[in-house]
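ok new one. same drill as before - structure tokens go in, u give me an amino acid for every spot. 109 of them this time. try not to just spam alanines like last time pls lmao
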């Protein structure tokens, strides 16, 4: 199956500029371009899955990994209160068909 290349493929592959705040071998986190809270980050796995709706037993570790990276990032930055959200499908508000976790906080960095 050929992947449709989304904005997040291009951010992941450094073809599109983004404010990257965290990166390791598995995950990239960047600022959302249209923030809906004082702090609005997106945690994106390097391995492509289009949505929570398409997660399989083989890729079921990815959402948990994103949550763990977001939790660690928040802890390191002293962010004590935040929301974590996955939008699923167009009806769930998902605009970009590449799995990502939103981290929103009233606490700016
Ligand atoms: P979703 O609606 O869950 O698919 O979230 C996609 C998010 O990506 C939205 O909150 C957008 O504001 C954000 N977004 C779109 N383009 C960019 C970009 N070039 N850099 C950073 N965030 C983006």
């Amino acid at each position: 199956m050929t992947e449709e290349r989304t904005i997040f493929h291009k951010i992941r592959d450094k073809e599109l500029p983004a404010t990257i705040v965290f990166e390791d071998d598995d995950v990239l986190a960047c600022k959302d371009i249209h923030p809906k809270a004082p702090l609005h980050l997106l945690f994106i796995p390097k391995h492509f899955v289009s949505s929570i709706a398409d997660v399989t037993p083989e890729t079921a570790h990815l959402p948990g990994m994103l949550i763990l990276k977001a939790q660690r990032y928040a802890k390191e930055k002293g962010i004590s209160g935040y929301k974590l959200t996955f939008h699923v499908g167009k009806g769930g508000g998902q605009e970009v068909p590449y799995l990502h976790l939103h981290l929103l906080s009233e606490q700016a960095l």
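The chain has a mean pLDDT of 96. and btw The domain at 7-105 is CATH 3.30.428.10 (HIT family, subunit A).
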